[in-house]
Automatic annotation (TrEMBL):
Keywords linked to the UniProt accession: Methyltransferase, Transferase
Keyword RNA-binding assigned: no
All copies of domain Methyltransferase, residue ranges: 40-134
InterPro entries found in the cross-reference section: Methyltransf_25, SAM-dependent_MTases_sf
SUPFAM superfamilies in alphabetical order: S-adenosyl-L-methionine-dependent methyltransferases
Enzyme Commission designation: 2.1.1.-
Enzymatic class: transferase
Species of provenance: Saccharothrix espanaensis (strain ATCC 51144 / DSM 44229 / JCM 9112 / NBRC 15066 / NRRL 15764)
One Gene Ontology biological process: methylation
GO molecular function: methyltransferase activity
Entry protein name: Methyltransferase
Amino acid sequence: MTQFDELGRMYDDSAELPWRKHMEMFTVLKLMGDLTDAAVLDIGCGSGAYARAIRARGAKRVLALDESEGMIAHALARERDERLGIEYLCGPLPEAERGRFDIVLAVYVLPYATTVEQLSAMCQSAFTALRPGGRFITLVLHPHSTDEPDYYRRYGFRLFSDHPEVDGAPVTLELQLGDHRVTVSARYWTPHTVEEAMRTAGFRTAVWHRHDVDPDAVAEHGEEYWRPYLDRPHAAIIECGKAGDAKAATAPGGPEVTG
C-alpha cells in the first residue's frame, strides 16, 4: 500500500482547485500542444485527472500508470462509467509498450524518488517509453519555492520543510479540501541533479517553463490572487526531448527559462 491508496476522490477534487485547473493544468496542456492522433503515457497518473483531460483534447491513445492500487481502482471505476477509452495499469510500463509514445507526462512523480538512483531510473523509464522525437514533460519541486508554511494557503495547500534545499531533502505538502486534509511526503532535488538524471537517461537539454494563467481565470479572480504563486511557484514544469526533436532543445536549461 502507498501513501495515495485512499486518496482518489480527493485528488479528483484537487484538480478543480483554481491554481491546479487554471494555472498548472492550463500550462501543461498548452505545452503539450495539439494532441490529435498522439499516443500519450501518463506516469503516476493518480486519479486520472490529466489522463481524462488529455483524452478530451484528442489524444488517440492514453495509457495511464500508477503504483497505487487505490488510485488505479478509482480511475478504473470512473472509466467504467465514462467509457473514455483510457487504459489504466498498476505498476511499471510493460516491456512491449517501450518506444510507442509521442509524449510522456509525469506530474509530481520525480519528487517521490528517495535516491539519485531512483531519480535516474524514473527518467530512464520515460526515455525508454518514447519514440524518437518524443517529449518528456514533468513537474518537480521548484528551487524558488518558499518554506513559509502559510504562503500557499490561499491556493488550498501548505508546503514546509525543516531541511535546507539539498538533494533528497524531505518536504511535506499538506492539501486542504473542505473539511478534508491530507499530508504527502516528497523530496527536493536540485536543478543540477534533475538535469543530470535526464542527460544520463539520454534526453536533450531540459527547458524550464514558467506557469501561465488562463486569461478567464485572471478576470475571475484578479491578478493579485495569482501573483504570489507566480512569484514563488512551488512546482517547476520541465520539458526535454528524445533525439530527433528540435523543439525541446532550443533553450538553455535552468529554472529561469520561460516557455
